[in-house]
Amino acid sequence: xxxxxxxxxxxxxxxxxxxxxxxxxxxxxxxxxxxxxxxxxxxxxxxxxxxxxxxxxxxxxxxxxxxxxxxxxxxxxxxxxxxxxxxxxxxxxxxxxxxxxxxxxxxxxxxxxxxxxxxxxxxxxxxxxxxxxxxxxxxxxxxxxxxxxxxxxxxxxxxxxxxxxxxxxxxxxxxxxxxxxxxxxxxxxxxxxxxxxxxxxxxxxxxxxxxxxxxxxxxxxxxxxxxxxxxxxxxxxxxxxxxxxxxxxxxxxxxxxxxxxxxxxxxxxxxxxxxxxxxxxxxxxxxxxxxxxxxxxxxxxxxxxxxxxxxxxxxxxxxxxxxxxxxxxxxxxxxxxxxxxxxxxxxxxxxxxxx
Length: 355
Ligand SMILES: O=C(O)CCc1c2[nH]c(c1CC(=O)O)Cc1[nH]c(c(CC(=O)O)c1CCC(=O)O)Cc1[nH]c(c(CC(=O)O)c1CCC(=O)O)Cc1[nH]c(c(CCC(=O)O)c1CC(=O)O)C2
Fold this sequence. Notes:
The protein is α/β, with parallel strands linked by helices. About 45% of the residues lie in helices and about 10% in strands.
């Protein structure tokens, strides 16, 4: 168990007592904590500078660079948590899947997985496969002080979508064809991915991550009945696999208004909400006993400072009665966002919610 955790009977650490982890645990907070999905990356000139000439996947495997990029938004914006700089396809690359992240496209898989024989590509992930992750998190926890580090992974459905389609997809045709057409192969594929994802999250927690977020970015493409039958067992398996560590488990997807209750039921402590559902309504859908994370539309940051404040106020008002609220955008920071707008947003949320 890492020094960030406070197993019962031990003195709570400053990290354990941070506003972010308190909000995840639904405890009273000094102010609403804020972090942003994709807070590191292309919105920051200092990121573009250190990434110059280094391909995305390679940059994810250099511990010093990962630590530097992860710290950049913490230094600049005064956010309440860091998110480990990586990508959802990194564990797949680590077990030898032939894939690349192509600039302007995203992850592209050379040999898509569409048959039972293709499943053999998915071997177990061991800590030795991702030594750079353990090393980078060691560097980070030393630098971060009381600021928690969030580890993350892609959820089985979203990873399956990339593997089956061979790259980003709008309609997920091949993925759904497999899910509806060969339910047994589909279940076996998701189960394999759940094993890999669980192992990857464990590495991050054991190295010192204080919370984890499972990104099921594309799962909003499914109806609730299909989610429950074909996806939820694998996501539940991942959450169960890391439950004993006692770190908050966040679950996020886009366009998941109809799935929020089930995504909580899968085992999340914190349910991430995109901007389409107000947080008070999301709380009704999720039910008691969970914190919520969200949910300013990332595109709002392109409007005037006054408009950003008005829209932020709406989010905070909708969150007023929640058991626990972590402020975030409804999806990742868009690459051309003005970083100063993000810094101002953090300060506004902190001052508006100071207790
Ligand atoms: O649109 C698509 O289908 C491909 C998306 C895409 C992915 N990796 C990618 C790209 C290309 C791109 O962003 O331009 C490739 C990718 N991943 C990342 C970056 C850096 C950046 O966004 O500027 C980039 C762009 C790389 C570059 O060209 O510089 C890093 C990344 N991916 C991710 C994260 C975790 C996070 O969001 O906080 C993070 C770390 C951010 C941080 O440390 O602050 C997670 C990720 N990657 C990915 C997804 C799937 C859903 C999505 O599209 O957003 C998701 C989950 C999600 O954001 O919902 C796949």
